Known about the structure:
Blueprint: H1 9-14, H2 16-21, H3 23-33, H4 44-54, E1 59-63, E2 66-69, H5 70-86, E3 94-98, H6 103-114, E4 118-121, H7 128-137, E5 142-146, H8 150-156, E6 167-170, H9 173-177, E7 187-188, H10 189-193, E8 212-218, E9 226-231, H11 232-247, E10 254-257, H12 264-276, E11 280-283, H13 292-298, E12 303-307, H14 308-316, E13 330-334, H15 338-348, E14 352-357, E15 366-367, E16 377-378, E17 383-386, E18 388-389, E19 394-395, E20 411-417, H16 430-434, E21 437-439, E22 447-459, E23 462-468, E24 472-475, E25 478-481, H17 482-490, E26 495-503, E27 512-519, H18 528-538, E28 547-550, H19 565-570, E29 581-583, E30 592-593, H20 596-603
Parallel strand pairs: 1-11, 3-4, 3-5, 4-8, 5-6, 6-7, 10-11, 10-12, 12-13, 13-14, 27-28
Antiparallel strand pairs: 1-2, 8-9, 14-15, 16-23, 17-20, 18-19, 20-22, 21-22, 22-23, 24-25, 26-27, 28-29, 29-30
Helix pairs in contact: 3-11, 4-6, 5-6, 7-8, 11-12
Amino acid sequence: MKHEDVITLPQLAAKVPQLVSGLPGLVKGLRIGNTTDKTRAVGLGRCLERCRASNPEGPAVVFEGREISYEAFSRWSNRIANFLHASGIRKGDAVVVMMENRPELLAVIAGCAKIGAVSALVNTAQRGKVLAHSINLVAPKRAIVGEELVGAYNDVADAVSLSRENCYYVPDTEVYRNGAEPPIDWQNLEHLIAQCSETTPASVDEIRADDPCFYIYTSGTTGMPKAVVFNHGRFMKAYGSFGFAAVKLTARDRLYVCLPFYHATALAVCWGSVLAGNAALVMARRFSASNFWADIRRHNATGFGYVGELCRYLMEQPASPEDHRNEVRIMVGNGLRPSIWQPFKTRFGVARVMEFYASSEGNIGFTNLLNFNNTVGLCPFPYAIVKYDREQEAPLRDQRGRMIRVARGEAGLLIGQITAKTPFHGYTDQQKTQGSVLRDVFEPGDQWFNSGDLMRDIGFKHAQFVDRLGDTFRWKGENVSTTEVEQITDGCAHVSESVVYGVEIPGTNGRAGMASIRLDCNLDAFDFGQLLQSLRQQLPAYAVPVFLRISKDVEKTGTFKHKKAPLKAQGYDLAKVADPVFVWLPGTQTYSRLDQTRQQEIDRGQHHF
């Protein structure tokens, strides 16, 4: 850690005027987000209706030349809500939603929210067994699928629990542009809602904080994806603490978001901030490093949502005199690397970096309210950073059995206290939920959520993200479950056993996937191209291992767990690894043997992963 990353008293004192001026918004945001009144009507639908009442003709969503007002967007979502209710969907019913970024996705989510239905937001990159598992996991009553993903759904239709009459598709102009025919045997949702009432359903005022709003899928630490319960109360926390206390948009602002809306960063943090300010959401279907700033300028965006990898890609673009020509005053997101933090602000003229830390399943969050560099900010909720034993993979406890807080400047495991104001709602699987709770941490009977993340205490209630623990690593802005990748890899031809872990590549965010595999054939006879093709068919691109280590045996503990720590430490460094190592280089269709020359090229950043 750099010395300057530790916050000093003079640095904090310099921020006092900023803190005082933002106090009204902070108080309002915390009041909205921290209510313990379980009888009060809250929720996404009510937030949207407030925007409709106060800014009816203002733009709600801007997308590819379309500009939809709050009045029009609310009426649209009401038609969807009233149709679903008339078809038998009731409060608490799950509706699988599979769609790329476009206004139709948000209209469906809002329509479901207004009647208390739960949108199960499936990762659009999922395919095959993983996709079927994610759909079946929430026992859905309906599926609403974008035309662009009907093929992916059809591939697993026989393995999911829904009948075809309960599946609707939403037409997509991009698909039409590519000359595709409308899906066969699917019902067109646009046709079905055409004559439905545009009146706001009364159920929008019957939603309470504990009612689930959507399911967000996380890879977790073991096995297939888990569905995290994201209730309306948690949406209100994002709406209040980010929208009013931190980001502070107005009706004149336009927030550009190219992040996928099946993630909470886009869906809760960015959209929640937009709704809090009656602002406009400028939605991009996907991220493009070469078109990003041109798109920002085209839409007169005053802010944008980010993940760290996005920022790195933007910094890798050739410098241009146009870099500073934008109206952006704030960026909100997470994962911005300290090494590019200030250079990014300077190059593109961004004054405020609203970095935050949160997880889909977690009960606490940090926000960089005071605009310090290289920090996720401060947390208004009870938390602790405790000493962690990497070898034992558990928090350290003292002689009394209590955990030990780290000193200022030290890193440890982040835990959040479970209270009435910071409940832990967990997963749809109660066993997994209970496994994330730590007990008797500082006092007998207390309960704390185990974040699984290492954080550094940098003083004055501020923290700095360090790393993720366990069997999950982050790559390309996505969480990768090593167990899931191992299951798929083990099913490939001639692979007897695999161990998957994340390794660092200089100059990149997160960790790239690496698999130590044992073959049942000679190395010369193994088809690396076929392996890569098989992995790409069954896994999202970000989850496919970048490196392979061909091992004769896989070292295990006495309880038959794979020993990953030595593998992670050795990485792909040929000076430390005697086994053959192969790499999937960008733009290639197979794994190729890694040698010293190629390793040096990778370490110097000559290959853009």
